Amino acid sequence: MANAASGMAVDDECKLRFQELKARRSFRFIVFKIEEQQVVVDKLGGPTQGYDDFAASLPADECRYAVYDFDFTTEENVQKSKIFFIAWSPDTSKVRMKMVYASSKDRFKRELDGIQFEVQATDPSEMSMDIVKDRAF
C-alpha cells in the first residue's frame, strides 16, 4: 500500500469544483470521497440547496470530506460567507477507512485554498447548524 499521507492523489476535478464554489458560488457544497488511492468528487450541491440537504448527502457508514459554503448575516446586517471543511468519519465506518481518511486529510485540505474553518464529526450532532453558526461568528 502506498503511504496514505503522501501517496494520496487529488483528482483535478476536486480543485476545479472547489474554485467554482469559492469564486462563482456555483455550488453550496461538495462532498469528496477516496477511491482507488485518490480523492474524487462524490456529490455536488446546487446553490439553492441548504444545510439539511448537505447533511443528508453524507453516508451514514462511510467517511467523506466535504466543503460547505455557509452564508450568514452579521449583527451589523452585513452578508458574509465562510467556507467550512468537514471531515466526516462516522463511528460505524470501517477502521481502515477511518485511518486512510485521517492520514490523508491535511494533505487534501492544503489543496483547497480558501477554507476558513474545519469541523470533524463522527455523528450528525457534531456538525449541527448551531456548531457551524458558532464557529462562523
UniProtKB/TrEMBL annotation:
Amino-acid biosynthesis in keyword set: no
InterPro entries in UniProt: ADF-H, ADF-H/Gelsolin-like_dom_sf, ADF/Cofilin
GO MF annotation terms: actin binding
GO cellular component, one term: actin cytoskeleton
Gene Ontology biological process: actin filament depolymerization
Domain ADF-H: 7-137
CDD domains (alphabetical): ADF_cofilin_like
Superkingdom, natural source: Eukaryota
Keywords associated with the record: Actin-binding
Gene3D superfamilies reported for this sequence: Severin
Pfam family, any one: Cofilin_ADF
Entry similarity comment: Belongs to the actin-binding proteins ADF family.
Name by which UniProt lists this protein: Actin-depolymerizing factor 7-like
Organism: Senna tora
